[in-house]
Amino acid sequence: MSEIMESPLKPMPAADASTNERDIAALQAYLEANNGIRGLDILEPGDVRHAVELFRRDGFVVIADVLDSAQVEILANGCAAVAGDILALDEGRRGNRGSHRYSFGGSSLTRSQLHRPEWQMLLDVPVVHEVVSAIFGSPDYVLRAASGDFCLPGAVEYQPLHSDVGDWRDKTTTPFSAFHDPRGQVTVRDLPCPYVCVNFLPQDVTRLNGPTRQIPGTQHSRTRIPTLEEEPEWMRLSTVCPAPAGAIMVRDVRAWHGGTPNVSDAIRSIPNLEFYAPWFREPIVPGISYADYKRLSEHAQRIVRHCVADSSETLVTGPTLRAP
C-alpha cells in the first residue's frame, strides 16, 4: 500500500497549523475515496423481516425514510439546542467521549435527554416499534434511556472500538451491569439480543462527518476487542455511510463500534432511544418527570414506565460534562 493510502489513518501529529491542514486534507481525500461499508444495505420501512435478518447477521441495520421532513427538522433543532448548552461548558472542546466528541446522555444530569420534547417525539415512531418488537419477539420491551452522541468538526481522532454492555463484575467497576453467570460458562454475548439502540439521523451521515464504524457480526464474539494500535485498516473504514437524514440505525449494542473523524464543516448528531428486551433489566436512572410522563401517549407511557421520577420528586435536568 502506498504512503498516501496508509498515512492518513495514523494519529494527527501535533505540528504547526499548515502541517495539520495538509494532514486533514489528505485524510479528507482518503476517506472520501475509501470510507464506508461496501454494499451497505439501506432498507425501506416496510421491510421489517429483512431488517431483522440483517440485524441478527450483522449486529445492525439501516432503514431509510423513517422520519418525515418535519420530524427531521424538529430533531435537528433539538440536537443543536442541547449541543449548544453542552458546548457552553467546554470552551476547549475536550469533549467527554474524546476530543470534540460528546454523549447526549453523558452530558445530562439525568444521563438521558428524555425530558426533551424532541426525544419524546421519537417514542411514537411506528417503524421503531415494529422493528424493535420483531427483534425481541414481543412488544413488551422497555426504554432504558434517550441519549445518543454528537461530534464536532475537528474530531480528527478515532474513538477506540468498544461494546456498550458487558457482564457484571462488581458494584464499583460495573454499576450499570446486571448479567452474571457464577459458573463462568455463559456471558451476555451468548444470549439472544438483550439491548437495542436505535439511532436517528437528523442530517445526512457522510464519509467525512464522523460516521459510526460497525464491525459486522461481532455481537456474539468473545474475542478481545482490538486497541486502536491493533485495529486493522479495514475496520477503521467499516463505517455506516452514506446514510440519509430521516433514517434510523438499529444496533445490537454488543457489536463492536466506535466514532470516526469529523472532517466536515458541520456537527454530526445521532440521538437515540435505548431499549431492553422484555426479559432483561439493568439499573435505569429516572429521565422524565411524572408530569411529563402523564402527557405522553399510552404507548410511550408503557415503554418509559421504568424511567419515570416519582410524583413527589422534582427531576433536576440540565447540561453537564460529567453525568452523575
Describe this structure in words.
The protein has 324 residues and is of the alpha+beta class. It is built from nine helices and nine strands. It has helices at 3-6, 17-34, 48-58, 69-87, 117-121, 126-136, 233-236, 290-294, 298-303; strands at residues 42-43, 60-63, 101-103, 142-151, 195-200, 213-214, 248-252, 257-258, 268-276. It has a seven-stranded mixed β-sheet with strand order 1-2-7-5-9-4-3, covered by helices on one side. β1, α3 and β2 form a beta-alpha-beta unit. α3 crosses α6 (126-136). The radius of gyration is 19 Å and the shape is globular. The chain starts with a helix and ends in a 21-residue tail after the last helix. Residues 1-5 and 12-19 have low confidence and may be disordered.
- The helix count comes to 9
H-E order? HHEHEHEHHEEEHEEEHH
Number of strands: 9
- Give the % helix: 25-40%
Q: What strand order characterises the main sheet? A: 1-2-7-5-9-4-3
Largest sheet: 7 strands, mixed
How far do the termini sit from each other?
46 Å
How much strand content do the residues show?
A: 5-15%
Low-confidence stretches: 1-5, 12-19
- Overall geometric form: globular
> Which structural class matches the secondary elements?
alpha+beta
Mean pLDDT: 94
Topology:
Layout: H1 3-6, H2 17-34, E1 42-43, H3 48-58, E2 60-63, H4 69-87, E3 101-103, H5 117-121, H6 126-136, E4 142-151, E5 195-200, E6 213-214, H7 233-236, E7 248-252, E8 257-258, E9 268-276, H8 290-294, H9 298-303
Parallel strand pairs: 1-2
Antiparallel strand pairs: 2-7, 3-4, 4-9, 5-7, 5-9, 6-8
Helix pairs in contact: 3-6
